[in-house]
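Hey forum,

I'm writing up a methods section and want to include a predicted complex as supplementary material. The small molecule is pyridoxal-5'-phosphate. I've pasted the protein sequence and the SMILES. Can someone with a working setup run it? I'll credit the forum in the acknowledgements.
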Amino acid sequence: MGLVRPTRWPAITDGDRAAVTRVLDRGVLSGAAAPEIRGLEAEFAAAVGARFCLATNSGTAALHIALAAAGIGAGDEVIVPALSFIATAQAVLYEGATPVFADIDPVTYNIDPADAARRVTERTRAVVPVHLHGLPADMDAINALAQGAGLTVIEDAAQAHGALYKGRAVGTLGVMAAFSLNSTKNLPAGEGGLCVTGSEELYAGAARVRFDGLEPPSKWDPGHPLDDETDGLATLRGWMYLPGELTAALARSQLPRLAETTARSQRNAARLSERLERFPGVEPPAVPRDRTHVFHKYRVRVDPERAGVRHSAIALRDRLLEALRAEGVEAVRWQTAPLPAHPLFASTSGERYPNASAALDSTLVIGSQSYPLFAQPLEVVDAWADGFERAWNAILT
Ligand SMILES: Cc1ncc(COP(=O)(O)O)c(C=O)c1O
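Reply by user p_vandermeer:
Happy to help. Structure tokens for the complex are below, copy them as they are.
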């Protein structure tokens, strides 16, 4: 096993280096209307099939400008899943609103629309389904809920670039959507984000929130690249969330490779699942027939009862994690607690989220952020499958 070295993420090509060098040679490093930012926005909007796109300096910022543009504010409630990265809830707090957690579906790990419906109050204004690990949430049910209760749907697609729901790309399934360009993601550019929408009005509002409340310049003068933002007057409260040109150029250079990353990810996941589903008590990620999964993370559940062992789920998971690492298989626990159990919220929320807790207790992720499954050649996938088999057999005996 030790002979097959895993591939580290992110992949950087000569094309990426050339793209960054072109920016340095041009000598224009920033600007809301600068060429790399504008190019990235146009190209990503086209890739997703969205009318408008705004590049930001993080996925969290992309989520925040979406919430702000949708008019979410103090006193409002926003429903978010109990299992996600903390940014999903933090962006709601940025606006002075309250994140209200809904439990997840135990099979898909995504927000459970029925539990979300139970959380709606007269103060609820929006719902943020997260397409966790690259699997689209149950969007028909979420949109039906939103329509009935008058909520804005903002997709958190930070982990799901390129995933499809009923043939439609994530990012076009709600009113607005946020993607992340963080180095760990399937479209990695260091730190950055992308906010997309089909609404011109929300786009205009989000553009101002992104740029200190100012309207972005409509023209860009290559002779005076830094003099494009001097005349604006602020019309609302905003933040400074513009990305720089180096990041935008790197993201643009990476974008044409996203389809290849998705295909490799799906190939690897299929190969690994085909091996793992043979072991009673091991449950590879489920993919409902009406959507595609881009496997940003590959989460495996272990069931002590079906495996025929006396351990608790937590004990079995921990033993497996240790045994996998001993076999040289990259494996991690991504998120160790549901969001409402973070100390930030624990004092206000005594509530339990049984499905989110059970999912975290009984699962682990194959591949790490530095060496994700989606980056690997087949020899590494097969070596990890062999290592899993040895680890599993060792802990069952
Ligand atoms: C589900 C989810 N939402 C939001 C974010 C925030 O993205 P960023 O780290 O680019 O701010 C992330 C990324 O880590 C994420 O995984």
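Some notes you might quote in the supplement: Residues 298 and 365 are 5 Å apart (CA to CA). Residues 58-60, 84-85, 87-88, 130, 156, 158-159, 180, 182, 193 surround pyridoxal-5'-phosphate (CB under 6 Å).
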